[in-house]
Amino acid sequence: MRTLVTGGAGFIGSHVVARLVERGDEVVVLDKLEQQVHQGRAPQLPDGVRFVHGDVGDPEAADDALRGVDAVVHLAAAVGVGQSMYEIDNYVRLNTMATATFLERLVAQPTRPSRLVVASSMSIYGEGAYECEQHGRFAPAPRPEAQLARHEWEVKCPTCGADSRPVPTPEDKPVVPTSIYAITKRDHEELSLVVGSAYNIPAVALRFFNVYGPGQALSNPYTGVAAIFASRLLNKRAPIIFEDGAQSRDFIHVSDIVRGILLAMESERAVGQAVNLGTGRPTTVEEIARHVAKGLNVDVEPERLQRFRAGDIRHCIADTTRAADLLGFIPDVDLADGMADLMSWLEGQEADDRVDDATRELAERGLTSA
Predict the structure, then answer these.
(1) Which of 169, 105, 151 is nearest to 315 (CA)?
(2) What pLDDT score does 35 carry?
(3) Geometric angle at alpha carbon 109, from 115 and 191, rounded to 5°
(4) Strand, helix or coil for residue 304
(5) How far apart are the first and last CA of the chain?
(6) Which domains occur in the chain, in start order?
(7) Measured distance CA(245)–CA(289) in Å, rounded
(8) What predicted TM-score, i.e. pTM, was given to this entire model?
C-alpha cells in the first residue's frame, strides 16, 4: 500500500511513518517543516520514504504528494490553543483553508485514495461532560469569567449551581470550541467526513486527546503540556501552571495513537464516524508536572499562577466505548510506563525554553487574567 502522511515529519506523524514502513507500506510524507516546530532541522525519516517539502494548502505540492496513493493520514496542522487566539488569520489559513484546498486536490486525482483518516482533537468539545449529583449529566457552557475571577475553578451545575464532577465525554456530546485552534480542528473533521461521503472515499475522524511521548518539540511553547513542562525543567525552571493545577486531562501515549490510526485505516465500521482516542483515565496537570520533575530528577515546585487563560477548560476525559466497538481499540500504555518512556528519551535532550515569551504574548493581548 502507498500511504501519504501529511505532517509526517512532526511528532505524531514521524511515529506513524515509522510504523507504516515497518509493516511494509510505501510511504510519502508531505510537510512544510514549520520553523516553530522543527527549528530549521532536517526531517529524520526512515530510508525509502518519499519526502515532499510543501504545504497541504499548495495545490502543486498536494498533487505531487497525492499521486498514486492508496490511503491518506491527514495530520498536518498548526498547533497551539493560546497562539491561535491572536494569530487568527494564520490558523484559519493554515488549518481550515489549507485542508479545503488539500481535499479539492484529493478528489481531483485520477485514482482517489480508498481511505482517509483525519486528526481531529478533543479541543472541539470545549468543556467535557459533567454530572450533578442531584440533576444528572449535562454539557456545560464555558465557565463565566466572573466565576473564574473569584478563583472558583470547578464547573457548576446550570440548574442548582453546585460543583459538578467530570464524567467521560462521549462523541455525541455537543461540541463547543473555545479557541480558534479548536474551531479549525472541527473544520478538519467535518470537511473530511463530508467530502469523504460525497465522493465515496471512506473517511474516519479521530479525536485525539492529550498526546505525549518521545519526539515532541521541546522548544515549541504551544505544544503538549508534558513537553512544555520538560522544557522548563530541563532549564531548571519551575513549570508554570494556570488555575490551581487540579484541572484534568486524558493523557495518551503516542504509540497508542499510532495504533488507533492504523486500526482506523482498516475498520469498515468506523467509516463516516468521529471516534475518541484516549484512555478514559483522568490525570491532573499538576500530576504531570510532578511526574516530569521526578523523572528528570529536578527538585523544583510548580509555579501555580492562580490565573486563567481565555479558552481554557477545566476537565475533559475520553469515553472510549466507540473506539473499542468500532476500532477494537484498547489503550496499551499506562501513564507510569508512558512517562518512563518519555523520560528515557529526554535524557540528553536540550530545550530552548520559550514559555515566558508565550505567556507574555497572551498577557499583552488580554488573554490571561491579571
Answers:
(1) 169
(2) 85
(3) 55
(4) strand
(5) 54
(6) 2-364 (3.40.50.720)
(7) 9
(8) 0.97
Q: What Å distances lie between residue 108 and 98, 104, 133, 338, CA to CA? A: 15, 6, 53, 41
Residue 49's SS3 state is: coil
The three cell numbers of residue 171 are: 462523541
120 CB-contact burial (10 Å; exposed 0-12 / middle 13-18 / buried 19+): buried
> How many Cβ atoms from other residues are within 10 Å of residue 160's Cβ?
11
How far is residue 20's CA from residue 118's CA, in Å, rounded to a whole number?
16
CA 119, CA 105: separation in Å to the nearest integer? 18
Is the CB of residue 330 less than 8 Å from the CB of residue 279?
A: no
Contact between residue 127 and residue 316 where contact means Cβ atoms under 8 Å apart:
yes
Burial level of 35, CB count in 10 A (0-12/13-18/19+)? Answer: exposed
Name the grid cell of 133. Answer: 449529583
How far is Cα 310 from Cα 21, in angstroms, rounded to an integer?
41
What are the pLDDT tens digits along the chain (370 aa)? 999 999 999 999 999 999 999 999 999 999 999 988 888 788 889 999 999 999 999 999 999 999 999 999 999 999 999 999 999 999 999 999 999 999 999 999 999 999 999 999 999 999 999 999 999 999 999 999 999 999 999 999 999 999 999 999 999 999 999 999 999 999 999 999 999 999 999 999 999 999 999 999 898 888 889 999 999 999 999 999 999 999 999 999 999 999 999 999 999 999 999 999 999 999 999 999 999 999 999 999 999 999 999 989 999 999 999 999 999 999 999 999 999 999 999 998 988 888 899 899 999 999 999 7
Cell 479548536 found at: 182
Tell me how many degrees the CA angle 159-163-169 measures, rounded to the nearest 5: 85
**For residues 277 and 207, is the Cβ–Cβ distance under 8 A?**
yes
Q: Tell me the HSE value of 265 on the side-chain side, using a 13 A CA sphere.
A: 21
Alpha-helical (H) ranges within 177-284 are 180-198, 225-234, 254-266
Distance CA 251, CA 141 (A): 23
Is-contact 124 280, C-beta < 8 A?
no
Which residues of the chain form beta strands (DSSP E)?
Answer: 2-6, 26-31, 50-53, 71-74, 115-121, 129-132, 136-138, 165-167, 203-208, 210-212, 240-241, 248-249, 251-253, 274-277, 283-284, 303-304
